[in-house]
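Q: What structure does this chain adopt?
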Amino acid sequence: MISGTPGKHGAAYYRYIPLSFGLNWVNRTNMAFVGDYSKVRSATIGIDVKANSIVYEGHEVGRHMVVELRANDNPQPGSDYTSVWYDLGPIKKGGWKSMSVTIADTRAKSLPAVWGGTGGGYPALPAGRTFADVLAGVDEVVFTTFVPGSG
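A:
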């Protein structure tokens, strides 16, 4: 639901009240975010977040915000997609927080330091898939509080 006062960059914001202890914001249709990232040499992906409350067992807690870039082509058996992901850092109750990551080289073969990959076992990419392969076919951009591999 788009609602209320603009966020930091003057845009409307999305208010979400999850029924579980985590959430996913998934974009599959906005071509400004999905597609072939190798068409540009570098890319910055970001989100502005404001958590009014994150409660677990009656106590305010924090969560980590992750951006995950998913490619649905050629996944490993037993997986729906192959992805690369980056932990943007912690969020907690408070004011607006801008979070982003810059991919310095969208054509890099290896996972950059502190990036993870899924689809071939945590935190690696499947055999024969590279960071650049995944970025060339991004079908979904997901902002999530579920850190891959953390259970």
